[in-house]
Specification:
The chain has 214 residues and is mainly α. It is 69% helix and 0% strand.
Length: 214
């Protein structure tokens, strides 16, 4: 989600692997812009290549088609968001509530700073058929596992109540993703970062429910 890079040419050109990495990054940036502006269904390899200032042949050196492009873009965006959330949470010691708030703030901040990537990550990926839906489901499951692991560790230390069921973490993640997707599609609320208190209440509400007695 960095600024679009350019590659020096001629005798000052970098090695091939670096050139390919920069090209791929430019194509990701261009694809995110195209997908968010006209939608996945109407996007094309030619439009993405043109947006990146490259030839269509260069696009096909990196991706077999636009489906492969959006899947790779989704993986890249999800990885960056997860890394930002983990770094933010790890910078906070002890208090699970503070870790949750830090991770949530990082998540929403990334989406606010990179709206085109956010739309691809949370909205356009669903237009990529079964493979897109599968990618989205797997990332949501990963978020839920991380949240459940955090909760289990906090409960073990007596810092938080344990979730009442194995599905509670996924409920928090699913509700959060739907709220953010709605904001991206409809602009409600105006700023995605305004969802932070609501996401906090969602998690707190489930943690307030005692676990069933075995």
């Amino acid at each position: 989600m960095a600024q679009r890079a350019t590659v020096p040419r001629g005798r000052h050109a970098p090695p091939l692997e670096i050139r390919l990495s920069v090209q791929r990054r430019r194509l990701f940036e261009a694809a995110a812009d195209v997908f968010s502006r006209i939608g996945y269904a109407d996007a094309s390899a030619e439009a993405i290549a043109r947006e990146a200032g490259m030839s269509k042949a260069t696009f096909y050196e990196h991706f077999a088609n636009k489906e492969e492009c959006i899947l790779a873009l989704f993986d890249e965006a999800a990885t960056e968001v997860i890394r930002a959330m983990a770094d933010a949470a790890d910078a906070v010691n002890g208090d699970p509530g503070a870790r949750w708030r830090a991770g949530t703030r990082a998540f929403l901040g990334m989406l606010a700073e990179h709206p085109a990537w956010a739309q691809t990550l949370l909205v356009e990926i669903m237009a990529a058929g079964d493979r897109g839906a599968d990618r989205r489901d797997k990332v949501m499951a990963l978020f839920a596992r991380v949240l459940d692991t955090e909760n289990a560790a906090a409960a073990e230390q007596g810092l938080a109540r344990r979730f009442a069921s194995p599905h509670d973490a996924f409920a928090v993640v699913g509700a959060g993703v739907e709220l953010v997707s709605r904001q991206i599609r409809l602009g409600v609320p105006e700023d995605v970062r305004d969802l932070e208190p609501l996401l906090g209440r969602l998690a707190a509400g489930l943690l307030a429910v005692p676990a069933p007695v075995e």
